[in-house]
Design goal:
12 strands, 482 residues, 51% helix
């Protein structure tokens, strides 16, 4: 799972700071140990020279006095090693009783005059050991002085402890401050995101607020507004094209339909020619329904979907629509049934009739021969509901919202039996929204699908429409099957 950008920014900031603190801490530890060791060497080497000089002049009895005077460490030791590696004299800590130089070091000191300056583990502790050559009555010896590095180790340990305590505390404070700064820095972008999320196809005229700053956020807002303007212009051009094309096509299609009707009424028409004319008439009807549907969608997009609102009973609309589609259902051997309870709403009867016709046509189209389609109406609290239940193949869960999209098709067929322009259900959704309601689908209780049209219920009693003469002359049921 991807982390929010402010969390990633904070983590990167803390990780970078942790690396810097670790590097600086390691440098401080190494630098402190080197400086303290160098300071110890600056004390220890002059002390070694004085011890060597005192032994050269006074011999072993002088070693304790001089060593006790010049060695000032917490724990110190000195010794004189003969050429055979034995301890000729010693002073101080117990480690001085055993040779503090390795044989190779002793040979380097006595034979080559090398000065030894190193750290060594003597016993259970660390020591700083220095050695040089000297003589006593002409006999060469190696004089060794050493001081414990325990004070250095304790100082370094305290520094490490302080770093381990202060480092995580600094990282925690930095994480909190980084989170706050990241959130504060990204707040303008979050506001842009929230505003952009509210802009849909019906709000393309809206624009994002542009901050009065000359920074990346202001440039982002300006870029998004420019993009929205281009999208709005493109969508408006598309809507105008669809509306204009639909208007232009309606007249020639009406003329073709009239000419075909006249031809079909001719006497002594050849049966084969009559069949061709009836097929052409059916295609013209299908094209007319598609054009009407496109025009309705274009009007809905432009907010110009004409509604003649009045009291309507969905039960009446469903009853009349089902009656008109009985012949279509019979042709496909579909049992079209009704179960209608009063469902008063305030709406446009023509538009509602179109929505119900599209739902019934869709159910008849996809139900198998011999199946049944049931349309029912009821009032559920503040809503009136119309349900159309079919026995078709059903709709996959991931497609139940997409089925109401424009030109959505769940099958690859484009035959007249099961195909269409893919705008019938989108018209239902647009008509439902224009009435303040919604359209949805869910699985049927025994397979198939249940399509629902839910609208706000009307408080008044609707006037029942009893016949075709009461139908809205402006808007016949022309959206069926698109």
């Amino acid at each position: 799972m991807s982390l929010p950008i402010r969390a990633r920014m904070t983590l990167w900031y803390v990780a970078l700071l942790a690396a810097i603190i670790a590097a600086v801490g390691a440098f401080l530890v190494v630098r402190l140990r080197a400086d303290l060791t160098a300071e110890l060497d600056r004390r220890l080497n002059p002390a070694l020279d004085q011890i060597a000089l005192g032994y050269h002049e006074e011999g072993a009895p002088e070693l304790p006095d001089i060593s006790g005077t010049v060695l000032s460490g917490e724990s110190a030791a000195s010794q004189v090693l003969a050429t055979d590696g034995t301890v000729a004299a010693h002073y101080g800590a117990r480690v001085a009783g055993a040779p503090m130089l390795r044989p190779a070091e002793l040979h380097a000191v006595l034979a080559d005059g090398v000065r030894i300056d190193r750290s060594a583990t003597l016993g259970a502790h660390r020591w700083r050991v220095v050695a040089r050559a000297s003589t006593r009555k002409g006999a060469p010896v190696a004089v060794v002085a050493a001081e414990s590095t325990a004070p250095i180790d304790r100082s370094v340990h305290r520094l490490i402890v302080l770093l381990l305590i202060a480092g995580p505390a600094a990282l925690a404070a930095t994480a909190a401050g980084g989170w706050w700064l990241a959130r504060r820095s990204l707040r303008p972008i979050q506001r842009l995101t929230d505003e952009a999320a509210l802009i849909g196809i019906d709000r393309l005229a809206d624009r994002l607020p542009e901050p009065a700053t000359d920074d990346e956020v202001a440039r982002l807002a300006a870029t998004l507004n420019t993009m929205l303007a281009r999208i709005e212009a493109g969508v408006e051009e598309q809507h105008r094209l669809i509306a204009d094309a639909s208007h232009e096509l309606r007249s020639p299609l009406a003329a073709m339909r009239a000419e075909l009707d006249v031809s079909l009424r001719a006497d002594h028409l050849d049966p084969q020619a009559a069949a061709v004319l009836r097929s052409a008439r059916a295609e013209v009807d299908r094209l007319s329904r598609t054009v009407d549907g496109l025009l309705t969608l274009a009007q809905a997009d432009q907010g110009a979907l004409d509604l003649e609102l009045g009291p309507v009973d969905l039960a009446t609309v469903a009853e009349e629509t089902a009656h008109r589609l009985q012949s279509l259902a019979a042709d496909r051997s579909i049992d079209l049934r009704t179960s209608l309870d009063p469902a008063p709403v305030r709406g446009d009867p023509g538009r509602l009739a179109q929505a119900v016709a599209n739902l019934l046509d869709n159910a008849i189209k996809y139900s198998p021969a011999g199946g049944a389609v049931v349309v029912s109406t009821a009032t559920d609290g503040a809503h009136a509901r119309l349900d159309v239940l079919d026995e078709g193949p059903g709709i996959p869960p991931d497609a139940r919202e997409r089925v109401f999209d424009r030109f959505a098709r769940l099958d690859a067929s484009r035959t007249q039996a099961t195909g269409g322009a893919g705008i019938g259900l989108s018209l239902v959704q647009e008509i439902a929204r224009a009435h303040g309601g919604r359209a949805s689908t869910e699985p049927g209780p025994r397979g198939g699908s249940r399509f629902s049209l839910v609208l706000p219920s009307s408080a008044g009693t609707p006037a029942r429409r009893t016949g075709p003469t009461d139908r809205d002359p402006r808007f016949p049921v022309s959206g069926m099957g698109v």
